[in-house]
Amino acid sequence: MELTIATKDSGAVKVAFSTDYSKMIITGRYDVRSGLPDNNVRTIFTDREENLWMGLYTSGLAAVTTNAFAFYRPETDKEITYIGRAGTQVVAGTRSGLFDFDPLTGSFTRFRNLSVRTGGSGITSWSADDHGNIWIGTAGDGLWLMKPDGSLKQVFRSGNPGQNHINSVAVEGDNTWLGTSDGVVLLDRETGR
User: Fold this and answer.
1) Residue 147 CB: number of other CB atoms within 10 A?
2) In what order do the strands lie in the sheet with 152-156?
3) If the chain, 193 residues long, is cut into consecutive pieces of 10 residues, what is the mean pLDDT of each piece?
4) The dihedral of CA 161, 167, 171, 172: what is its sign?
5) Are 36 and 23 in contact, with CB atoms under 8 Å apart?
6) Is there a contact between 40 and 78 (Cβ–Cβ < 8 Å)?
7) What is the pTM of this model?
8) For burial by CB atoms within 10 Å, which of 114, 157, 174, 193 has the most?
9) What is the DSSP pairing of strand 175-180 with strand 52-56?
């Protein structure tokens, strides 16, 4: 199995595992020496055509297609923290909102400033599901859900402040998994409990 890992100071590292997963071998890397403008990779996404997309801390978005780089930068809010597909639309998330992104033209459009609408503490994590919904984790205001029509509602807020800081969100089947500052929270996708 091969995996590409985003790092803060070493670019994106390609690794392979032994069959029993006891050993990890670095098989390659994408960094400033290989052409990236920045070694701080925030997020990674592989599209249907197997192109690798990397959200960079301060330099926008980098794409690797057949071993060539392409770079895309929104005019503002250049720290891309999420790149993924919501329904048929490719979206790029930042700490404060969400862009639509067109991989064919490289254009960022229709920015939605969501940080104010999600409690104001800042957006820390994103995930999209197979229904076109976007799950938004915050730095202190719990979990929010944005429907394809743009409506937004809070779906999880705990009495425990550590659980309201959502570091990662993953949607799998009927479950929503949250990696929080106070451990893992498992929610039913429909009820939020």
Assistant:
1) 12
2) 123-128, 134-138, 143-146, 152-156
3) 90 93 93 94 88 91 87 88 88 93 92 92 91 94 94 95 95 94 93 83
4) negative
5) no
6) no
7) 0.80
8) 114
9) unpaired
